[in-house]
Amino acid sequence: MVSDNNGNPMNSRIKSDEVDIFLPDWTDREFKEIQSSEISDFKLDKTITCGIWCFRGKLLQKCANETLFAVLFGILSSMLTASFTYYSATIATVEKRFSIPNVNTGIIFTGTEVTQVLLAGSISYFAGTRHRPRIIAVGAFCVALCAFLHASPYFIYGAGDNPSTEDRDSKVCQSRTGSCSMVESSFGPQVIMFAAQLSAGVGASLFKTVGPAYLDDNTKQTKTAGMMSLSYLLSEISPFLSFQLSGYCLKRYVTPYKETRLSPTDPKWLGAWWMGWLVIGTMTFIVGCLLSLFPKKLPRAAERRHYALTKEREFFGIYK
What we know:
Blueprint lengths: L1 E2 L5 E2 L1 E3 L6 E3 L4 H10 L13 E2 L2 E2 L1 H4 L4 H33 L3 H8 L1 H16 L5 H26 L4 H11 E2 L4 E2 L6 H31 L3 H30 L24 H17 L7 H18 L4
Antiparallel strand pairs: 1-2, 3-4, 5-6, 7-8
Helix pairs in contact: 3-8, 3-9, 3-10, 4-8, 5-8, 6-8, 6-10
């Protein structure tokens, strides 16, 4: 075990840009005393202050803590999980609206996995020295883009209320004659949906690899497990909420402001599959904006590194 000049134990190893450092296992009260006396020369700079460009201040700086970051990161992870769950819950309605074969639906869904496999390794390598909260925010914006792209076919191609369902029923199967014919599927919406899944894969690769590393580097070893558990707990709640959201949206008519004689139990019914995507996309975008305000290093972690590096230099006689 390494000790400093005063005989204090230094047994918690951390990473530093210059050397490996052993941090003492201080209590919060002891570290506050150290902070007020021995590291009074520690100054805040842009790398450890909250905000971006002109959006800075003392109010934002109070939010620079690992607990808030863990909560926001957990919400962001839950939004990604919610997008997958909502896709699974509403895809049957989308297939009916645009006459998409089940095989094509499976291919579209694999877009997320393709981008994660191709990008996960390179992103984790190049993002290590960059501003990681902003990289996570870019990932959040990619997931938000995925949600908005999934909703866009409604605005581009229209609601497709009665004509698409009735024509499809008359073209696909004639129950009286027993003859069936294939319906031409809409290629444009499929391209948009596949692009949306690619965007979700990029976003997942960005914040799944960078987020846990940032949380681990900026929390004490005794708190890291708790912070990780908090973020993962929030992400596990999202499937239940997204299924509730899909149920609510699909009970609404595809064009909410139009009256219809159809009921949700009617085979010709089309639910408002696009509404939930707008909710998921908006919430993800807001969380991404909040995460982009976090500093490159959290102040408490930077203070501990500063003090530990100073003591390390004193111990080895290289302090200037």
